[in-house]
Design goal:
Layout lengths: L1 H33 L2 E13 L2 E12 L2 H20 L1
Antiparallel strand pairs: 1-2
Helix pairs in contact: 1-2
């Protein structure tokens, strides 16, 4: 009897983990569809003559395809749907 309870408890925990992972993947997919990239800036010294320093700020874009977000969105929905079938 205790063994059967442990199996049901473990199954419920696995289902809950699958649902949480599915929700997280779905949210990341939606965000990746909405925002297709971001920029970050770095400062680089161009001239350094004693007390005189000249630096330039460079922007570095990071881009991804919205298709990646769509794939994550579909995968997250599938994980949630699999969770409901169990």
């Amino acid at each position: 009897m205790i063994t059967g309870f442990n199996i049901k408890s473990n199954l419920k925990q696995e289902i809950l983990k699958t649902r949480i992972i599915g929700i997280i993947v779905t949210i990341i997919g939606i965000l990746m569809i909405m925002y297709t990239g971001f920029n970050y800036a770095t400062k680089e010294k161009v001239v350094d003559l004693g007390s005189l320093e000249i630096s330039v700020e460079k922007n570095h874009p990071v881009k991804w395809s919205p298709a990646i977000g769509a794939i994550l969105l579909i995968g997250g929905v599938v994980l949630i749907a699999i969770d409901k079938k169990k």
